[in-house]
Amino acid sequence: MEEVIDPRLEGAKKMLSSVSRIVAVMSSKGGVGKTLLSTLLAVSASRLGFRTGLLDLDVTNPGAHIVLGIDPARTQPEEEEGILPVRVEGVEFMSTVFYTLDKPSPLRGIAIDNAIREVLVATRWGVLDLLVVDTAPGLSDVAIDTLEYLPGVEVIVVSTPSKLVVHGVEKLLSLLTETGHKRYLVENMTTGKSRGVLAGLAERYKATYLGSIGYYSDVEEYIGCINKLLNSRFGRDVESIARRLLQL
Amino acid sequence: MHEWALAQAVVAEVEKIVKRGGRVERIVVYLGELQAVDREVFNQYISMMIEEVSPSTSIEYVEEKARFSCRVCNSEWSLDMVELDEATREAIHFLPEAVYSYIRCPRCGSRDYEIVAGRGVRVGIDYR
Question: Residue A64 sits in a domain of what CATH number?
Fold first, then answer.
């Protein structure tokens, strides 16, 4: 019998076969700090001695390169038995922005899925202790592909104390409970009174509470300057979260 | 080469069937015009890899023309109706969906269109 199939997911498994741990940063809502958290988490893990990768799967609106301070027109991945991620700040980094060059990328569902499959089949990660994946907000194509295509993926759910965000995040946590993915909760943009209020939410959905990140108005100034970000209050909070995630 | 990664993916599918006890007699690799995979390079890699997994499998190729269909004005077009420079072709080779960043519908200018044929690599596997 002849079956016509898409071989890319089998190829993706091969490309990810030497990655020990994959952790996706997800949220049901946008603007909660996923990209800043995932990028700084990857750089922190690298500085803590872990061989770390960072994959930006927000294919219609990638942003990790902005946090890292990379101009995709000047930095391009090389080819060697696939595509080699770009090494930035000790992190192996891959993003579709290297090919779209930050031009508008309006993709419908099937095109998003195809773009993700293509990145996964082509990227040669090599041996990594940790691959951090930044994702797009919501429970749409990127979220579903992240959960289905990345072997053994663990999920850090990012929330803020906002009622609207918590409402959405509960749906994601509920989904992760159904699918059985290992899950963590990080609370971002907390202020004095609100710090830690979501620990109960984590407990309810059997998610490990990794801690909170304060609301720091100065963080915006440091985007694109990774050392300033790491040394900021935001960066120090992320390092604590990285240490908990990595059990240090 | 990127072709290496795609060849590895096809062979991984063959390997999966062989491990289940299947015998793969023939594969047909469909190469979409949009991705512009170098058939000769791809064939070199896949011939080498498949030798290790299923040496008696024959490999055939079918090249598929790329076709696009606009969701706004319903027009259909092919790649030879748009102009692409070398750098754009290279970007689309690595990521065919980059086409949405560079090409708009030749009739109405929309980016809301579908790639209806000839996107990338698919494989037909003939096995028992």
Answer: 3.40.50.300
CA dist A156 and A143 (Å) reads 12
> Distance (Å, rounded) from C-alpha A177 to C-alpha A48?
30
Beta bridge pairs of residue A83 = A79, A123
Q: Which domain holds residue A100?
A: 8-245
B:54-83 residues touching chain A, CB 8 A cutoff: none
* Residue A14 reports pLDDT greater than 70: yes
Q: Whose CA is closest to A92, among A101, A83, A103?
A: A83
Q: How confident is the model at residue A193 (pLDDT cuts 50, 70, 90)?
A: confident
Residue A1 has pLDDT above 70, yes or no: no
Mean pLDDT on A93-100: 98
> How high is the pLDDT of residue B2?
85
- Number of domains, chain A: 1
* Residue A119 forms part of a structural domain: yes
- Residue B1: pLDDT band (50, 70, 90) is low
ipTM over 0.85: yes
Nearest CA in chain A to B7: A11
Q: What is the pLDDT of residue A195?
A: 75
In this structure, are strands A86-88 and A22-26 parallel, antiparallel, or unpaired?
Answer: unpaired
Q: Domain spanning B2-127: which CATH class is it, in words? A: alpha beta
Would you say residue A149 lies in a domain? yes
Domain boundaries, chain B: 2-127
Q: What span, in angstroms and rounded, lies between the C-alpha atoms of A46 and A52?
A: 6
Residues of B in contact with A104 (CB under 8 A): 101, 111
> For residue A2, is it within any domain?
no
Is-contact A42 A235, C-beta < 8 A? no
A3 in any annotated domain:
no
| Residue A89 CA, distance from chain mean position | 16
Mutate to test the interface with A, among B95, B112, B116 (most CBs of A within 10 A): B95
pTM: 0.96
- State whether residue B119 sits within 8 Å of chain A by CB: yes
State mean pLDDT over A80-98.
97
